[in-house]
Amino acid sequence: MGKTLAHTTWECKYHIVWVPKNRRKVIYGNLRKDIGQILRRLCEYKQIEVIEGTACADHLHICLSIPPKFSVSTVVGYLKGKSTMILFEKYSNLRRNFRGHHFWARGYYVNTVGLDEQKVRQYIKNQQERDSVEDRYDTDLIKDPFKGASSHLSQDDEE
Question: Is residue 123 annotated as part of the catalytic site, yes or no?
């Protein structure tokens, strides 16, 4: 079903969009290719899966599978901050166009990518079947657990 951590099974996918400072149309050519490689490498370091991604001239779309041990805002801050430092180091001419060390704009858009309805319905159905199997075993329980099995037998004899 999903991925696992020590005590967690998870499937957390997010569609994230962010833009360069002042929505400048600067993502093209080698810079576009390098941004993709940089983001993939940064995600690898944190065990974040890049499901899909595309860089347009003035914005970036990326679909990530983020483990629940990380918040989305932490991951986006990490990706934007580290990628900016790497880009400014590689493309020193970008510093002239972007004051300070700010390549990306401050905000971002995020949306969860949920399971489709059919998967959820199937999961719920399977849970109901599992519970009904467990309920069959509950009928054999002793009515008064403090009196032991003999109290269960004697009550049946009285009825």
Answer: yes
